[in-house]
């Protein structure tokens, strides 16, 4: 491969990465807007989050097409191949994070405006949104810089989101049957907390993918079994 072709190939990979980072920034903005909509119980902002979801989906389609095109023309190997496979994984996780932001926005409308507990629940969820935003920011930075150290730090941040979710569920169990007037808001808050927890899981996936890109190590599954002679064959599955 001559120098001109190599330079052009490198440019295509950098453009692919830039598009993935743009998608990530859009999802980050989408989640931040969902958090702001929750704190203000703002239907207008919530609707904007839902509208942005189609733009996120559009980025995923575009990135998939770019990857297919590069594969067909360049036949990448080694580190370049890992980058492309990694970017493909990242775009899927970003799209699913966008779905969760959309779900959060739609859920906000279920709160009863007359229920004073809704403000307490929104305040309890605020730290999870802040942690998720930090995770996304740092995960995108680790991807941009191909920095596995930062990626590992992102993985450690996920516990903060899990703690918010578990605290809300524990509170829901504790108050069930005691504060009936607050039950509706607590259940809705638990739905939102679960969506944020899923966002955290997807960001953690992205960080693990960055480690794969940088080191070639797939840490997504710490324990796994290689398919062996006894594995189910595709042609043996009926229906």
TrEMBL record:
Which coarse location class describes where this protein primarily resides?
cytoplasm
User: Does Cytoplasm show up as a keyword for this record?
Assistant: yes
InterPro entries for the chain: PhoU (IPR028366), PhoU-like_sf (IPR038078), PhoU_dom (IPR026022)
Q: Where is the PhoU domain?
A: 22-107, 131-210
Keyword annotations for this protein, in alphabetical order, are: Cytoplasm, Phosphate transport, Transport
Compartments where located: Cytoplasm
The keyword Magnesium is annotated on this UniProt entry: no
Query: What is the role of the protein in this entry?
Result: Plays a role in the regulation of phosphate uptake.
The Swiss-Prot or TrEMBL record describes its family as follows: Belongs to the PhoU family.
Q: Describe the protein's quaternary organization and the partners it interacts with.
A: Homodimer.
- Recorded protein name is Phosphate-specific transport system accessory protein PhoU
């Amino acid at each position: 491969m001559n120098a001109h072709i190599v330079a052009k190939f490198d440019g295509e990979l950098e453009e692919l990465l830039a598009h993935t980072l743009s998608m990530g920034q859009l999802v980050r903005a989408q989640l931040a807007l969902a958090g702001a909509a929750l704190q203000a119980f703002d239907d207008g902002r919530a609707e904007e989050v839902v509208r942005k979801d189609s733009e996120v989906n559009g980025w995923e389609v575009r990135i998939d097409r770019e990857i297919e095109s590069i594969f067909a023309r360049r036949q990448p190997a080694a580190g370049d191949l890992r980058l492309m496979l990694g970017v493909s994984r990242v775009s899927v996780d970003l799209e699913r994070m966008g779905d969760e932001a959309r779900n959060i926005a739609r859920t906000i409308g279920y709160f009863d405006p007359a229920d004073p507990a809704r403000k307490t629940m929104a305040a309890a969820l605020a730290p999870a949104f802040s942690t998720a935003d930090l995770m996304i920011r740092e995960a995108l930075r680790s991807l941009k810089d191909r920095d596995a150290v930062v990626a590992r730090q992102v993985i450690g941040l996920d516990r903060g989101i899990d703690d918010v979710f578990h605290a809300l569920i524990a509170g829901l169990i504790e108050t069930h049957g005691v504060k009936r007037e607050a039950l509706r808001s607590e259940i809705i808050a638990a739905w939102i907390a679960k969506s944020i927890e899923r966002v955290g899981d997807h960001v953690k996936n992205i960080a693990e993918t960055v480690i794969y890109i940088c080191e070639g190590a797939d840490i997504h599954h710490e324990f796994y079994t290689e398919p062996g002679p006894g594995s189910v064959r595709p042609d043996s599955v009926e229906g």
